[in-house]
Amino acid sequence: MALFGPDAEKIERWKQEGRVARLRSAIEGGGPFAEQAQQALVEIVADPSVLSGVTDEAVLEAFEALLNLDQHAASWALLTYVNSPAAGSAVACRLIDRLASRETDAALLAVLRLAGCRLENVGLHAVRALAGMNHPRLPVALRSALLLADHDALEHLLRLLEERQIPGASKVLVHRFAKVAPDLRRPMARALRRQGLSAAQAEDALVRAYLLVEEERFAEAAGCGAEAWQPLAEALGARPEASDRTARILWALAQVDRDMLYRALRLRLSKAADEAIQRPSAAATAEVRAVAAWVLPALVELYARKAEVRELAAQVVAERFAAVKGILEGM
After folding, report:
1. Separation CA 315–CA 160 (nearest Å)
2. Per-residue pLDDT tens over the stretch 225-255
3. 92: pLDDT confidence band, cut at 50, 70 and 90?
């Protein structure tokens, strides 16, 4: 039997060579080496870096075979793979799609855990796959994902929360609010409002300030003090017109604290410059120029920053937006 059928040595060789079809046949044939062959599939997926003959396609094939044999083993192998030296984002995302398509408890739990993966694009992909699963405990999983998700994955979840009601999501968002990157706080405030939390209900000062801005109660927001200048600054739009949103925000800031207004004006132009740096386009360049057209005169009129404004204007004209950001940060 060992001469023609599988034995321990052949199983080990097939594993090293990524011969998934041979391993699958050994499992289907039963016998004393079936368990070893299944473990070989797990090892192919979990860490292909230690197996010289294993390709990405072999990993995918082994994972598919494992899904049909033992989803818990497949899930464990995938969770191990994303932390292995050989892990690749494209392969990990394909494995996630195959696992999520099963829509079982094991699949839901594993995809949820991958929402916190730091491998490039994998956390975001896992969140998208999770949101598309048809499972009775999906709302609970999405709420848990809010705790695990990193920047891009969390941003996607926040957009989702503007459309879906998730019980308990508000509590999780409030818990994370002060700890997330500042650029996520406004989307988080929008999500909180859609989930039913009002500024009047918010106990946290920072959350309350952002919600007041979302509710367009700008004077009350400005009255919150130091917590308020950034949400108000982030809500500034294009050139202020009489009684529009931007004009009302500027007025509210000016009534409470001129220093808050100064910081808000600088941030508004800095954010436009940063957008032009991160995603260069004719529209982004036009936005920097449009914002500079009203922010720079205000910096001169209100704060007499003539020298800095002359330099900023020159850098805007030359489209040197990194320099614009640098000057603003030093003012």
Report:
1. 39
2. 888 888 998 888 877 887 788 889 988 888 8
3. very high
